[in-house]
């Protein structure tokens, strides 16, 4: 024999249980879909990272160095492809390019004159192959019969040292 108030409670309990099962199932399905999407995205990222890329291997290219510098470097045995690592211009129109070829060799090109002028080595231009990277800049060395001159090039100043005497030139323009 059944109790008169008991049947509606069982029905309500079963209805609540069914509703909770539907909610739990939907929540589990949504969570599973999110996990599957994250795993697929992670696999794509891993595939991209595992694939060699020209962009990842090649350093970014700067501007090409002046034609006269390219020619002088070629005559000095460079494989070519010189790009600007640093360019500066001082208040008195001294310009310096620190260039790097495809083999990683650094070169110094100094020039005094207007932006569109001709480079005449030994008169208004100086090309050097002895260049070292320093903290914050570059050091180029020119050894001649009159002694040694070094050129310390930073984004902020050019310092020329000849036989122990320094001359410093503030920079008014620079790249990069």
Q: Structural class, from helix and strand content?
A: alpha+beta
Report the portion of residues in β strands: 35-45%
Strand order of the largest sheet: 4-3-2-1-9-8-7-6-5
How is the biggest beta sheet arranged? Answer: 9 strands, antiparallel
Low-confidence stretches: 53-59
Give the overall silhouette. Answer: rod-shaped
Residues in helices, as a percent range: 25-40%
Distance between the termini: 94 Å
Mean pLDDT: 85
By DSSP (H or I, 4+ residues per run), the number of helices equals: 3
Radius of gyration: 35 Å
Please provide the ordered H/E string of secondary-structure elements.
HHHEEEEEEEEE
Q: Tell how many strands the DSSP assignment holds.
A: 9
Task: Give an account of the 3D structure.
With 176 residues, the protein is an alpha+beta fold. It is 33% helix and 35% strand. The chain is built from 3 helices and 9 strands; from the N terminus they run αααβββββββββ. The chain has helices at residues 6-50, 54-57, 67-75, and strands spanning 83-90, 94-100, 106-112, 125-128, 131-134, 137-144, 147-153, 157-162, 165-175. It has a 9-stranded antiparallel β-sheet with strand order 4-3-2-1-9-8-7-6-5, covered by helices on one side. Strand 8 (157-162) and strand 9 form a beta hairpin. The longest helix is centred in the N-terminal third of the chain and has 45 residues, at 6-50. It is rod-shaped.
